């Protein structure tokens, strides 16, 4: 198993975790749909964006 395989697996796990947390959040349904689409369509960018600015995150 190469380094890229491990990275892909970690990204998949992070994306699944983010989607589960999005669905369980108190966000409005449209926000859940938009965040989920972002994570599904652009996994790396979507996961990073969600971890930094996702629903329920307090602004800096």
Largest sheet features: none
Ranges where pLDDT stays below 50 over 5 or more residues in a row are none
Class of secondary structure makeup: mainly alpha
Rg over CA atoms, rounded to whole Å, is 12 Å
Task: Itemize the secondary structure elements and their pairings.
Layout: H1 3-24, H2 29-41, H3 43-53
Helix pairs in contact: 1-2, 1-3, 2-3
Your description of this structure?
- The chain has one domain (3-53).
- It starts with a helix and ends in a 7-residue tail after the last helix.
- Helix content is 77%, strand content 0%.
- The model has no long low-confidence stretch (mean pLDDT 88).
- Helix 1 crosses helix 3 (43-53) and helix 2 packs across helix 3 (43-53).
- With 60 residues, it is mainly alpha-helical.
- It contains three helices and no strands.
- It has helices at residues 3-24, 29-41, 43-53.
Brief descriptors of the model:
3 helices, mainly alpha, single chain, 60 residues
